[in-house]
Each structure stands twice: as C-alpha cells, then as structure tokens.
Design a protein that fits this description.
Layout lengths: L1 E8 L4 H12 L4 E7 L4 E6 L6 H11 L3 E3 L1 H9 L4 H37 L6 H27 L5 H14 L3 H31 L7 E5 L5 E5 L8 E4 L9 E5 L2 E4 L1 H4 L5 E3 L4 E2 L4 E2 L4 E5 L7 H11 L6 H30 L5 H14 L3 H20 L2 E3 L2 H8 L3 E5 L5 E12 L5 H11 L8 H7 L8 E7 L3 E6 L2 E6 L1 H6 L14 E5 L2 E12 L3 H10 L4 E5 L4 H11 L3 E3 L4 H15 L2 E5 L5 H6 L2 E5 L4 H6 L2 E3 L5 H36 L5 H24 L6
Parallel strand pairs: 15-22, 15-24, 22-23, 24-25, 25-26
Antiparallel strand pairs: 1-3, 1-4, 2-3, 5-6, 5-7, 7-13, 8-11, 8-13, 9-10, 9-12, 14-26, 16-21, 17-18, 18-19, 19-20, 20-21
C-alpha cells in the first residue's frame, strides 16, 4: 500500500473534521485514514484497487464544503515561485487574507450589534423592534445560515445547523429578542474560537519551520551560489552565515561559532563548534561564519526527519481521541432526535404548552453542540506532541503519549544510553616502588598498537609515546598484549594472562581491575576502567523515581563488574549483565508481565528488537535508523533525563485532555438538565458550546509554550 498526505482547509469545526474522516474512510481501497483538525493534515493509505485516490479524496472533501490540496500540486506551486521576494509577498498575503476575514466578521458583528441594541430599546416596541431584531440576526447570522445550508446539502449535522434550527425556531414561536441575542453571542464566540484555533495552529506550524529552504553552496571557483536546500548533495561545501539555520546535517571544516541547538535538541544553552564537529540541520548559527561539508541530503537530514515525525504523529491517535471521534459521528443526530422529542412529547401528554417545550428544546439543542468536546481532545494531544518536540522529544502519536504517561517501569540499555561510548580510567593502583605515572606510561606503551576497546582510554591517559622504542608487539585476543620496550618485556592484560606468564598478581591485588601491567616479570600496577556516565544519567534516575516509577532496570551485554559499577553510581537497584539481544528480549518480557506498562530506552542497531518489544520504546538521538524505526519516541538531545521530561509532560497532557473532556461533558450535562426543567437560558446554552471550547483551547495551548513540568 502507498501512503498519501494531503492538506485540507476550511476545517472550522472539529466535529466536521471527524465526519469527513469517516466519509473518506468508507471509500473502497483506502485504509488508516486520519484527519488531524489541529494541523489540517489528512493521511491515508491506498491499495491497488483504489483509482486516483488523491483525486477521489479531494472530490469527497469538496462535496463536504472543504478544499483539499494534492501534495504534488502544492510542491509544483512552491517550485513556481520566482523568487524569495515573491514567496515573502505570498506568505504575507495569506496572513492578510486571514486577518481580513476576521475584520469582516467583526464589522458584521458591530453592525448587527447596533440593530440589536435598537431592537431592545423601549421606543421601538412591537413590529419595528421585531424588524430590527430580524435585521440584526440576518446580518450577524448570515455566515452561520450559509454554513448550515451547506451542511444540510452534505447531510452533515454540525453546530451551525443546530444553531440555525434553534434561531429559526425561536423566531417562529415569537422569541425575537432571544433569537437575535443567541445568534449574536454565538457569532462572537465563533470569532473568538476561530482566532484561538488559528493561534494554536500557528504555534504548531512554527514547529515545522526549522528546515531552511535555501543554502549557500561554495563553488569550485570560490564563488557562493544560493540554491534550494534540496539541491545540496553529500560532500558539497556550504557556507553558513551568522543567524542562518544549517540547511543540512554537516561537518564543520572551517571556522568556529556558537550554535543554538534548541530548535532540534531542546538544549537551552548554545554549543561551541569547531572543525570536525557535526551540526544537525535546523540549528541556528549565532556568531561566526563557518564552512561545512554536507553529510546528508535535505530529505534525510535531522530537520526533515523531525518535521515528518511530528506531522505523521497525527496518524496514530490515542484511545481517548479515537473514542471521541467515533462519538462525534453519532452524537449530533442523536441530539437532534432528543431535542425533537423534548419539544413534542411533553405537550402531547398535557405537560405544558408547545411554545414552552420548543423553547426548552432549543436550549437543549444549542447546549449539546459537540465542537468543544471534539475539539479539545485532538488539540490537546497535538499540543502535547508539539510541546515535546520543542523540548527535543519526538513522539510518533497520541497512542504513545498515553502509554508513556502510564509508565510503571523504565528499562535502560547501558552503553550509549546511560554511558558514553568511551571509557575512562577510574583508578590506578600502584605496586610498591612505582608511581601512577609509571603505571600509565608502561600501560600506554603496552596498549599502543592494541585494537581492544579498553586500550583507547589508556592511550588517552598517557600520550607521550615513542613508537620507535616498541618492538616485538604481540596481541593475544581475550588475554592482552606483550611488547619489548628498550629490552624490557611489558605485559598488559587480564589477571589470568599475567599469571599464566609467571607474574604474581596478588599485590596490589586490585578487585575489579581490567588491565594488569607487568614489567620484566614483576607486577607494577593495575587499572580499573569504567564506562563514562552521561552527564545527566544520575539526574534521570532521580527524576524517574521522583515521578513514582516503581521499577527501574538496566540491561547490558557488558560484564558483571562494569554493570555493577554503573548501577551503583546511578542508584539503579536492578541490573542484568552479560546479555545477548535475545536475553534482553526475554528479560523485558518478564518485566512487562510483572510491572505493566514498560518503557525501554536504548540506542544502536542491537537495541531495535527490544525497542519494538516495549510498550513504548525511546531511541537516543538520530543514530541508528533501525533503532529510530523501531522506537516510538526519539530523544534528540541524547539525554536520559529527556525521558523523565517526556513522562512528566505526557502526564500533564493526559491530565489536560481528561479535564477538557469532563469539563465539557459536565457543563453540557448541567445546562441540558437545567434546560429541560426550564432553568437554563439560551445564553447559558451558548456558553456550554462556545465558552467551553475557548477554555479547552486555551488549556491545551499552554502545553506548547508553557514551562516544562517540574520534577
């Protein structure tokens, strides 16, 4: 099956979006249809039986009163822009157009308000007052009536249709003042809601603006040519000026500068970069001009991958969002039926006049509009996902927001996750008569030509080595090395290797040492080598415990001593060492069955199976493609503490989503019950719709720009 992504505009109602999604999902050959109201993005898959799926989807959208743009057409329009200046003009024009719509609506409301006020004045009682109120309702409610008519033609029951029915019915039964007031209040609320949704969409859209369109390509003749970022190939040399974004992932080859990585990794402080350092696309050059070599194309660079992941997150909806979306499809028709029953049945049984019950049913009808309920959930999830991406945490959908928020156990891989790839010498134990420098010098000579991973940290500790003094180098895999150094035999390796070579290792007898050093048949010292912890690994464990995560474990293929040392330094009580990939899977399955929702954090291709096995897998950085593909979260900054931030943020997200749902349901239920007994006015009904929606939008928007939850 082929995946498609389209842009749908004109989605001013979350319930309408849910209805359109259902219609498209019913089309033969289309699968996994998801329409995200927050960013107006439609994603779906089509099999071979679907002919021209994009065209068919656009026809369905246009029939429902929305415009739908095919990705290829949008790309063609973008490529036809003659210059940056034209692009800027078009961009500004679009904003002015939106601003113009708001101004137009505001003018209509103001004109309508004048007629409404005149209609309430005692000097215009009777027929004149009624005419003024009708004019007020017509001026202000014309857009609502047009939308209601379109909804009727499309056989779609939305809030515009509900309000239109309520207002027309109010005029019919002679409630002119209430009808005109309701359409006025509803129009003002809709204007405020449109403005609030527009601001939220702009905040969300800003997350996708980290990828620059242009790049400064350095030609072979020394000239600089401005080209589209998509034209940069691996190996090309580019210039990045101060305050420009890096267009592709690249390696600095000239100059030095400070780089703002916050748009990509969430790092709050600038990073100093010099020749040899790699910088991800989307980061901002702050101080000096630098020359860099492209190490990835624009399509495969970090910024593009981040944007794709954020946008595709809408396709994986959580249980709460799926439930509310399904509810919206049947909710409005049911409400219309209940309102009709409330208006007609009581008078038939002699329980009051028809006009009284019609008036109560109108309150019921307006109060039950589903937009506040349907809007709050997808906007809440998308705001949470957007807020996470601003903090360098990418999540692949609402499903994983829910799972991470419910986490009961967190399991870490050791190497590359809690520790860095490099090791460090933790302790140097010297035999009597030898100094620390003696041990490091002989060890560095002995390990100078070794390919063993531990040899590198020994060479870093002592660099003044003269290779000409070394002869007869021999490396025995799994044991150690043997050299001749100016006539002295130097042996470096395991305790067993030295003992087999006739060297007594009982003194200094260091427990846990990985490298013993012998010179001319005598032990001179031993080195304890430990994995270098990531800067905030200990803080990550502390924060997870503070969040109430009951079980924290560490898995590693490393030996027992190394695993125990790291676990003790970090405060991890449960660890498993010497594991093969299949052993990690077995232990993770056991932890899942015993503890419930389990999150695994790791990196590297060996972690891909375990990342996929966990309820939610978190990959560290944009490292292994296999790990990223198998994971559900990506921690861009490669900080373990980002996982704790994700847990705290997603718990807050779920709290806001749940509050929005129950607040909307509670207010609506209260107004519906009061309205049925004649104790609620139409003003209260409009608040139950528009007012609640505004509160839900404001509540969700705080997830994007708000502070990171304290832990």
């Amino acid at each position: 099956m082929k995946k498609y992504k389209m842009k749908v505009s004109g989605l001013d109602c979350a319930a309408c979006a849910a209805g359109l999604e259902k219609k498209i999902a019913e089309t033969k050959g289309l699968h996994n249809v998801s329409l995200n109201f927050a960013n107006e993005t439609l994603t779906f898959e089509a099999d071979s039986s679907a002919e021209n799926p994009e065209v068919r989807v656009r026809e369905i959208a246009e029939k429902a009163g929305h415009s739908c743009e095919i990705a290829s057409e949008r790309k063609e329009k973008s490529s036809n822009k003659p210059s940056d200046r034209t692009h800027e003009h078009t961009h500004e024009h679009s904003h002015e157009h939106g601003s113009g719509d708001i101004k137009k609506s505001l003018i209509l409301i103001c004109v309508s308000a004048v007629f409404l006020i005149l209609g309430f004045m005692p000097s215009f009682e009777g027929t004149v007052s009624n005419i003024l109120l009708i004019v007020s309702a017509a001026v202000c409610g014309f857009p609502v009536l047009v939308e209601a008519f379109h909804s009727l033609l499309a056989k779609r029951a939305d809030e515009n249709l509900l309000v239109a029915i309520a207002v027309i019915a109010a005029f019919i039964i002679g409630e002119y003042k209430e009808a005109a007031s309701v359409i006025m209040f509803f129009s003002v609320g809709e204007l405020l809601e449109e403005y609030a949704v527009s601001r939220s969409r702009r905040s969300i859209a800003a997350l996708s603006q980290i990828r620059p369109d242009k790049a400064n390509l350095l030609m072979s003749n020394g000239e600089i040519k401005t080209v589209a970022a998509e034209e940069i190939n691996i190996g090309d040399t580019i210039k990045i000026l101060p305050f420009e974004r890096f267009p592709v992932d690249c390696e600095i080859i000239g100059g030095a500068t400070q780089v703002d990585c916050s748009p990509v990794t969430g790092e709050s402080l600038p990073v100093e970069v010099t020749a040899g350092k790699t910088v991800l696309s989307g980061c901002i050059n702050q101080t000096g001009e630098v020359t860099a070599k492209a190490v990835a194309t624009s399509e495969n660079s970090a910024a593009s991958r981040i944007i794709d992941m954020v946008e595709s997150a809408a396709g994986r909806k959580g249980k709460a969002e799926k439930t509310v979306t399904k509810l919206a499809v049947y909710y409005t028709p049911t409400v219309i039926g209940l309102a009709a029953a409330l208006a007609l049945l009581p008078p038939l049984f002699g329980m009051g006049s028809l006009s009284m019950w019609v008036q109560r049913s109108l309150v019921f009808l307006v109060a039950s509009c589903p937009c506040a309920l349907v809007l709050s959930v997808p906007l809440g999830f998308f705001a949470g996902i957007g807020g996470a991406s601003k903090r360098g945490i990418l999540v692949k959908g609402g499903t994983f927001v829910e799972l991470v928020a419910k986490a009961k156990a967190v399991v870490f891989d050791k190497t590359g996750t809690l520790t860095c790839e490099e090791n460090e010498i933790e302790k140097v134990r010297c035999a009597e008569g030898f100094t620390r420098e003696d041990v490091l010098r002989y060890a560095s000579y002995g390990e100078h030509f070794s390919v063993h991973p531990l040899a590198e940290c020994v060479r870093r500790a002592y660099t003044e080595v003269d290779e000409k003094r070394i002869s007869d180098f021999e490396e025995i895999p799994g044991n150690g090395t043997r050299i001749d150094l100016d006539g002295e035999e130097v042996i470096c390796g395991s305790r067993r290797f030295l003992e087999n070579s006739g060297i007594d290792t009982s003194s200094p007898g260091e427990e846990g040492a990985q490298i013993f050093v012998g010179v001319s048949g005598k032990l001179i010292g031993a080195l304890n080598i430990e994995s270098k912890l990531r800067e905030d690994s200990a803080e990550a464990i502390r924060q997870l415990k503070a969040l109430g995560i009951k079980r924290i474990a560490m898995l590693t293929g490393d030996h027992e001593d190394a695993a125990k040392s790291v676990a003790e330094r970090l405060g991890i009580d449960e660890y498993y060492a010497g594991l093969l990939p299949e052993d990690k899977l077995e232990i993770l399955e056991k932890i899942k069955s015993e503890s419930g929702v389990t999150v695994f954090a790791g990196d590297g291709i060996n972690d891909a199976p375990v990342l996929a096995c966990a309820h939610a897998g978190a990959a560290m950085g944009l490292g292994s493609d296999a790990a990223i593909e198998a994971s559900d979260l990506v921690l861009m900054g490669s900080k373990p503490s980002s996982l704790a931030t994700a847990v705290a943020l997603f718990r807050k997200t779920m709290g806001i989503v749940r509050f929005n749902i129950w607040f909307a349901l509670g207010v609506k239920a209260a107004v519906l019950i009061l309205g049925a007994f004649g104790l609620a006015s139409m003003w209260m009904a409009v608040f139950a719709d528009v007012g609640v929606a505004l509160i839900a939008i404001a509540n969700s928007a705080g997830l994007i720009s708000g502070k990171t939850p304290k832990i």
